[in-house]
Amino acid sequence: MLLRALALGLGVVELLRPKEFTDFWLKLVTKGDTEARAWVYPIVRLEGLVFVLWALTRGRGDSS
């Protein structure tokens, strides 16, 4: 249940704000000015969609 909630929250953020999400993590893990390539943001958005779909469909048919 907690994993589904985390995946849903992360997926929504990635769907709605992919540039800010990616830039935050790039600043956190790199030194200096780095910039993601243009193709990274649609991939982040796609990952967010996968997380949201997984969180919403996981557990269907289960009693738990």
Report what the structure shows.
The chain is mostly helical and 64 residues long. The chain has one domain (2-57). The chain has helices at residues 2-16, 18-29, 40-57. α1 crosses α2 (18-29) and α1 runs antiparallel to α3. The protein is elongated, with a radius of gyration of 14 Å. It starts with a helix and ends in a 7-residue tail after the last helix. The model has no long low-confidence stretch (mean pLDDT 89).
Taken in chain order, the helices and strands follow as HHH
Helix content: over 70%
Q: pLDDT under 50 segments (min length 5)?
A: none
* Biggest beta-sheet profile: none
Share in β-strands: under 5%
- Please report the total strand number as a whole number: 0
Distance between the termini: 9 Å
Note the overall shape: elongated
What is the chains' assembly state? single chain
Pairing-aware structural class of the strands and helices?
A: mainly alpha
Nearest-angstrom radius of gyration? 14 Å
What's the mean pLDDT score?
Answer: 89
The number of distinct structural domains comes to 1
Q: What's the helix count?
A: 3
